[in-house]
Design goal:
Helices cover 0% and strands 46% of the residues. The protein has 174 residues and is mainly beta. The chain is globular, with a radius of gyration of 16 Å.
Length: 174
C-alpha cells in the first residue's frame, strides 16, 4: 500500500490493515500518523516501511507477525508506542512484533472496559536496539524477549486494574 504517496489522497493519517488471508503484505507508511493491524493474518505477516518517528502501532486483533521499519533509525533516542487493544474479554495475542532501530519501546495494554476482567496479553518482542521497555495499561502482559540484550530498563509499574473484576493474575507482567 502506498496510499500516502498518491497525489490525489490528502488528509489520510491512520492506516488500518485488516488482513484476512495468509499472504504477506507490505505498506509504505510514509506521512501516516498512526498504524493499526486487525483481521486474521495467520502466516503471512504485515510489514510497515518508511515509518516516521512518533508514529505508533495498535494491534486490534490476534496477529502472527508484524514488522515496523522506521524511515530513519540514526537517532539515539527513538521512541515507539505499541498498543495492544482488546475489544473482547479474551487476551490479545499480538504475535511477533519486530521494531528495528528504536531505543525506547512503550507498550500499553487496553481491555474492553468496565465489567471486563483483566487478561494477560502476549507478545514476542524483537527490538534489539531497545534499551528501555515500559509497560502500562489495564491488562497483564507475557513478553517473550527475542535477542533484546541491550535492555537495561524495564518498568511495568503502571499496569493497574480498572475494574473490581481485575485480579493480580490478570494484571501480571512477565
Amino acid at each position: 500500500t502506498a496510499l500516502a504517496a498518491e497525489p490525489k489522497i490528502t488528509g489520510f493519517e491512520i492506516l488500518q490493515v485488516a488482513a484476512t488471508n495468509n499472504t504477506a503484505t507490505s505498506h509504505n507508511a510514509h506521512t501516516l500518523k498512526a498504524l493499526e493491524v486487525a483481521g486474521s493474518n495467520n502466516t503471512g505477516g504485515t510489514t510497515f516501511t518508511n515509518v516516521a518517528a512518533g508514529v505508533g502501532l495498535t494491534v486490534l486483533t490476534a496477529q502472527t507477525t508484524t514488522t515496523v521499519n522506521l524511515l530513519d533509525t540514526t537517532g539515539t533516542a527513538d521512541v515507539f508506542n505499541l498498543t495492544l487493544s482488546n475489544a473482547t474479554g479474551a487476551a490479545q495475542a499480538a504475535g511477533t512484533v519486530t521494531i528495528a532501530g528504536v531505543e525506547t519501546i512503550n507498550i500499553t495494554t487496553v481491555d474492553a472496559g468496565a465489567a471486563t476482567a483483566a487478561t494477560v496479553d502476549t507478545i514476542t518482542l524483537v527490538a534489539t536496539s531497545a534499551t528501555s521497555v515500559t509497560v502500562s495499561g489495564n491488562n497483564g502482559l507475557n513478553i517473550t524477549n527475542t535477542g533484546n540484550t541491550a535492555i537495561t530498563s524495564f518498568d511495568a509499574s503502571a499496569v493497574v486494574g480498572n475494574d473490581t473484576n481485575d485480579t493480580a493474575t490478570g494484571l501480571a507482567v512477565t
